[in-house]
Amino acid sequence: MQWLSTLDIFFVQLILFPPFVISLGVAAAILASRIFIGPLITLIASLELNYWYFSTILPEADIPSMMIVSWAILFPLLSLYFSWMALAPCLKQHRQDFRWSK
């Protein structure tokens, strides 16, 4: 993971981490077929990645709480939206199939 320390911190925080944690949450929601799993996994992954990144790259610096709070709100909201968009047609179809099967 030495190559990660050569990257700019803004590039990592704005380009690499967001798509990774959001897609991880959406993939978990799709696999579990539960919309609420996406934001939960996204929140956990985002907090873990930020903690690991800052403790590895800048061990002497404190983790900025405002950055964690803002990302902890934004990323799960985006993940909730994308999880809902991915699962809403499937859940609607499942409800219609269940309704007509009687």
The multimeric state of the shown protein is single chain
* Beta-strand segment tally: 0
- Summarize model confidence as the mean pLDDT: 82
Gyration radius (Cα, Å) is 17 Å
Derived from helix and strand composition plus strand pairing, the structural class reads mainly alpha
Share of helix, binned:
over 70%
Secondary structure tally, helices: 4
Along the chain, the helix and strand elements come as HHHH
Key features of this structure:
102 residues; mainly alpha; 4 helices
Write the layout of secondary structure elements.
Blueprint: H1 2-6, H2 9-32, H3 37-57, H4 65-100
Please summarize what this structure is.
The chain is mainly alpha-helical and 102 residues long.
Architecture overview:
- The chain contains 4 helices and no strands.
- It has helices at 2-6, 9-32, 37-57, 65-100.
- The longest helix is centred in the last third of the chain and has 36 residues, at 65-100.
- It is elongated.
